[in-house]
Amino acid sequence: MNNDRNKNHFFKGAFLLTYASLLSKVLSALYRIPLQNLAGDVGFYTYQQIYPFLGMAMILALYGFPAAVSRFIASQKGGLSNQLKRKVLGHLCLFAGVIFIIIFVGAPWIATIMGDSKLVEGIRASAIPFLFVPFIAYLRGFFQGQGNMLPTAASQIAEQLVRVTLIIVVAFFVVFLNRSLYDIGVGTALASTFGAVVALIVLLIFHGREKDVSSVNDDLRQPFSQSLFTAIIGYGLAIAVNHMLLLLLQFVDALTLVPLLRQTGMSLIDAQAFKGVLDRAQPLAQLGIVTASSMALALIPSITKARLENDRKRSLTHMTSIWRFTLYLASGATVGLIVLLPEINTFLFKDDLGTVSLRIFMIAIVFSALSISTASILQGIGQIYRTALFILIGIAIKFGANLLLVPFLGISGAALATVFATIAIFLINQSQLNRGTSKDEKIHIPWKGFILSILLMAGVVFIVNGLTRSWFYQFNRFGQLIYLLGLIAVGVITYLASLLKLSVFSKEEQEVLPFISHFLKDEQE
Q1: What's the whole-model pTM score?
Q2: In this predicted model, what pLDDT tens digit does every residue of 460-470 receive, in sequence order?
């Protein structure tokens, strides 16, 4: 009975973390739009150059190291000794300290690689949040090791709200006071530091209310077979890389895009502006991927539970649903964005610059979402290190493709490189997944019905938009929002109705989505 209660508590906690993560990602995507509106494309560029470092610190403190710490605590029957706790925290501090020194001291060298020496102060400031990573990660891992996910979720939301608010405030004052746009990079780093401080305070408040039940006497501690470095740093980095797909792709652009554009004879200010235009794709892609992969993230605990209970049939059912839902949602989001991108670009960013490049970039939504879903399935069956390696292979492809394509195609080349990298990661993940399933267990997709549904949705939205587009440009921004929401509603209804009419959803999937089964009942009546 107690064992069942503990399992239910664990899976409720896993879902709590999942939804906190989704909310955090939505906030992370949405605030970039007012940031670009305030600072312009060049100001947005300075933010995007600094963000990969800050994102890495956040992912290490939220996903990577807490997962490693909680896993390590769970492996030590009877709990951790005080000596072992100090060693765990010491390893985390040593690693984070080294990263801090590399970024802080190497900032001039990194800025030179990026082709913009004025980024040095922002890069140095972005090293500061790494100093808080060990303590935040340790406390989150401690709570998760006890099956208590609430402190992690609460600290994550608090951190994100503080960070997002301060970044917008900083951008406003930089523009209002007519300061250098490079100050946005420094301010963003300081906002992330304050967010980390708030997260740490929230965790310490929870810690003050809890009794440390994982502590044991040094003489009673359990031996551990694996090296502490591998158990904490190695495993933590593997988990973190699995959450860094978009971030690492963005990091490659931060390092290479401006220098490659300048090699074509472009001035620095123009290269910065073009980089800022391409960066508009980030919030759009992130929202699309979060929407598409949300079902996958929500079903991961169920897959893990089925695997632990040796219920292969249920595990395979969940894996199939993850893949299919991700494909349907990601494809719908991608096609909708591509069709409406001139209007979406104008509404969100005040003009339609870079629409062709952004349309190319949107294709990456499908393959990124499928990569995340297949990687989630593989992680659910214990293949953590392999999926991290596959992402690194994709990043190498992105780097090479940038070098080849950007000099000829500009930011469209960088967008194509992102698409090629996500396709490669997806194909490798899918190949690995296929190896672990028999021919009878392969995922079946009703391709004819699915493709017809996509084409019908695209056609209806394209025609309606073509007939009414002139209205869009006569509206103010609020009117443009209503116009786009109306077209999105038309697309969603058309797509969903087509999927249902063409029997694309299985009976099990209809049961997972209550609104679909309700719709079907109404239809039958």
Answers
A1: 0.85
A2: 999 999 899 88
